[in-house]
Amino acid sequence: MTESAAESAPGNPSVLPHPEAPNAGVAPAPAQAATMKIIAVTNIKGGVGKTTTAVNLSYLCAASGRATLLWDLDPQGAATYTLKGEPREHVSAKKLVAGKRELPELILPTGYLHLDLLPADFSYRHFDVHLSERKRPTERLLKMSRSLREVYSTLFLDCAPGISLLSENVLRAADVLIVPLVPTPLSVRMLMQLRDFIGHEGFSDLLLLPFFSMVDRRRSLHNEIIASTRAEFPAMLATEVPYWSEIERMTLRRAPIPAFAPASASAAIYRSLWTEVAGRMEDLPTAGDPAGRDD
Q: Any residues with CB less than 8 A from the CB of 196 and at least 6 apart, and which?
């Protein structure tokens, strides 16, 4: 089947008309409230395939039957654009952090079964400012996510590049940290710094899962760095995402690759990546969220 035929095939169960209300068609079991996993896709550097990873893995997570939400925390809104989402009116980082708006109010359906979207907003560029004004500022994101636990089994965070107070919120809230890594010396240095920071802060229950992205095996430097980094980080995921133009075209199609080209080699790579991530998560305990924690 060609990519266009796969996209338009009436029997494709993963593509649905947009429901009228958020979460339509999703009926998660009540037990999910206690087991929601938070998966952050992040990198200090931009342009490493972070949003492509977040969109494809969240789609595959939803396609496996899990009620899934992707929260686009990057003010540039690449994930929101790719999933054809539109920001809600009268939304701001200030209102969210202050508790004047609740996350469930802002959720949009994506048109894919079990997958919803919390769209980005340009005001997210000021997230750090508003977080710094709150009591226990590094725990605010974890508190905000509580309202989602009754509905979703998995929350993906597509994070903005850089190091910030919001980044520390993400590290405190997440169960799993997926780090797309271009095979360059500076990228490996960043990974070492991230590993050291996680250890220094005592985030012992945070599962760090780096993988190589935008790989070009024709380049000797890529081969050398991949080999040396795998020796330094034996927990790295085995799947490598190559530097292919068909992966870059995802933003033109504005859809996850496994949705519009399910039989493609690119879709197979992301399915392999998700299989690895899901396998590592199987025995992972839920991140603590003490009921007594307050703002």
A: none
Q: b/e for 190-213, b at 16 or more Cβ within 10 A?
A: bbeebbeeeeeeebeebbbbbbbb
Q: Could you tell me if residue 258 is inside a domain?
A: yes
Q: Number of folded domains in the chain?
A: 1
pLDDT in tens, 118-163: 998 877 776 767 777 767 767 778 888 888 988 999 999 999 887 7
| Three-state secondary structure call for residue 24 | coil
Residue 198 falls within a domain, yes or no? yes
The answer to the question of residue 42 being in a domain is: yes
Which pTM value belongs to this model?
A: 0.82
pLDDT of the residue at 117: 96
pLDDT of residue 98: 66
Pairing of strands 207-215, 240-242: parallel
Record the tokens describing residue 158, joined without a space: 């597509």
Domain CATH code at residue 193:
3.40.50.300
Domain contains 176: yes
- Residue numbers of the domain that contains 77: 26-280
Which regions in the chain score pLDDT beneath 50?
Answer: 1-33, 287-295
DSSP state of 175: S
**Residue at token pair 């992707």:** 70
**Angle at CA 115, nearest 5°, toward 114 and 121?**
150
Name 181's bridge partners.
212
Beta partners for residue 112, in sequence order: 15, 115
Q: How far is CA 71 from the centre of its chain?
A: 7
Which residue matches tokens 């292919």? 244
| pLDDT at 120 (0 to 100) | 87
Interior/surface letters 61-99, b for 16+ CB within 10 angstroms, e for the rest: bbbeebbbbbbbbbebbbbbbbbebebeeebbbebbbee
Structure tokens at 179: 């780090």
